[in-house]
Predict the 3D structure of the following.
Amino acid sequence: MSFALSLPPDTRNEIRDYLTDRFSDPAERLAALNAISAELEKLAVNPRLGIGYPGGPFEHRRIYRFVINVGGGERYVQVAYAVFPKNKSVVVSGFVPVIF
């Protein structure tokens, strides 16, 4: 059973800013948005995909990293999220690119 996915306005803004900054071609931007949406839906179906980090600022949130393959390049991003089993929801509280 899938959990309800919630993206607060600041997380939506982070995704929008990322897409605008990284993809100048509208077709690539749309493809990247579709890739992000697919990964977030996958996360809603299985919220255990991410990794928990005990202690520190992410103690009650998990991190899920994934790759966006658009425009001939791989871009790594991650989201921070919290799972609320009682109301069957996943709240994504952060979206950032991962730089190695």
Q: What stands out?
A: The beta strands are 4-6, 51-52, 62-70, 73-84, 89-97. The longest strand covers residues 73-84. The domain at 4-97 is CATH 3.30.2310.20 (YaeB-like fold). The chain has one domain: 4-97.
